[in-house]
Amino acid sequence: MCGICGCDLPEPRLISEFPRAPLKITAAPQTITLHQDLLHANRDQAALNRDWFSRHRLSAINLVSSPGAGKTTLLEQTLTRLRGRRGALVIEGDQQTELDAARIRATGTPAVQIQTGQACHLDASMVHRALHQLPESDGALLLIENVGNLICPAMFDLGEKARVVLVSVTEGDDKPLKYPSIFHHAELLLITKTDLLPHVEFNIQKCIEYARRIQPDLPYLELCATRGDGMAAWLDWLEAQ
Amino acid sequence: MHELSLCQSLCQSLEQEIRTRRLTRVLSVQLAVGSLSCVEPQALEFCFGAMDKAAPLNGCKLYIRRQPGDARCRQCASCYPLEHWLDPCPACGALERDLAGGDDVLIEQMEAY
Q1: What pLDDT was estimated at residue A119?
Q2: Residue B23 falls within a domain, yes or no?
Q3: Most buried residue, A102, A115, A117, B76, by most Cβ within 10 Å?
Q4: Mutation test of the interface with chain A: which of B38, B44, B87, choosing the one with the most A Cβ atoms within 10 A?
Q5: At what angle do helices B2-21 and A40-55 cross, to 10 degrees?
């Protein structure tokens, strides 16, 4: 019987099953209790990142959303408004291309692009490597734009101080119910592209109610980065981090 | 497909155990996968089977147990296991709760010689 789904087909022959090393049993099998976090390597690296951020007074913010929710546009507008107020650094995560880092550099902010290739999320060691490529900038804001994906980034601590999840009004207002995990791990919900509300069927109150079914205390802000609506409250929130 | 990353972490952890405990072969490993984690057990099984592993891990069986979260209702204070994010409190029907665990993956034990 197939060991994967229990169907009647024969067990699929897996690559890992050959070639087998000849068995030489030297002792009876023993059961060893481990109780080890599978992601402990990532958590350990995230703790090192967090320590680095704290020593350099960097406030690291991890921005997550589905692709196209407006993360890069929000960063561009945020960085333009932060100029002269607070130093900033950016780490960009995408599967391919340097496009987003180029947009960020155009605002005058140092940015490193991580191309994740096969991976669908940033992890703590990718962020660690990116830190080596950024100039020292004590007291700055470190904005990390994660890969556009509402599932995988939820599990990977980067060492950030806060995680911000964006939902644009061009998406469904039921996103929090469909992708609950990422909302459970967020410190702030940002509803973006509010200038498009007259043209779409998005109900902000519903979206917030759904998100609070997952995390009852989740604060939220509404904004339109291109028009500037709600940006002052967002900058105040960032300032408090 | 973060399950592949998770399987790589799993193999690294097991290889570390093999080295420190001077083991010859791992016959099986048991994971407790949080019911609220973003991990699909079938995808995990598939990746673990398909991966090219170190010789002592060849043929290692993977057993997966689901681990619910520990929820405490904010309305009536009863404690209950949370299998799905939107399950209400079984005592009073409220949705608001504080939550511990259920979103991680633990390597519980392994059988080896």
Answers
A1: 79
A2: yes
A3: A115
A4: B38
A5: 100
Alpha carbon separation from A20 to A172, B5, B30, B112 (Å, rounded): 50, 24, 22, 16
pLDDT for residue B112: 95
Q: Which of A5, A23, A152 sits opposite B38 (nearest CB)?
A: A152
How many structural domains does chain B have? Answer: 1
Whether the pLDDT of residue A5 is over 80: the answer is no
Give the domain range for residue B8: 2-69+101-112
Q: Closest-CA residue in chain A for B7?
A: A38
A88-120 per-position pLDDT tens digit: 999 999 888 989 999 999 999 999 999 988 778
Looking at the complex, report in whole angstroms how far the Cα of residue B77 sits from the nearest Cα belonging to chain A: 15
Provide the pLDDT for residue A24: 52
CATH number, domain containing residue B61: 3.30.2320.50
Angle, CA of A48, A50 and A51, to the nearest 5°: 65
Q: Report CA dihedral (A115, A222, A196, A142) to the nearest 10 degrees.
A: -20
Domains defined for chain A, CATH in brackets: 40-239 (3.40.50.300)
At A183 the pLDDT is: 96
- The reply to whether B22 falls in a domain is yes
Instruction: Report if residue B21 sits inside a domain.
Output: yes
Say what the alpha-carbon torsion angle A151, A157, A161, A163 is, to the nearest 10 degrees. Answer: 0
| B94 in a structural domain | no
ipTM of the complex: 0.88
The CA distance from B51 to A145, in Å, is: 30
Helix (H) or strand (E) holding B27: strand B26-34
> Which candidate in B1, B4, B5, B22 is best for mutational testing of the A interface (most A CBs within 10 A)?
B5
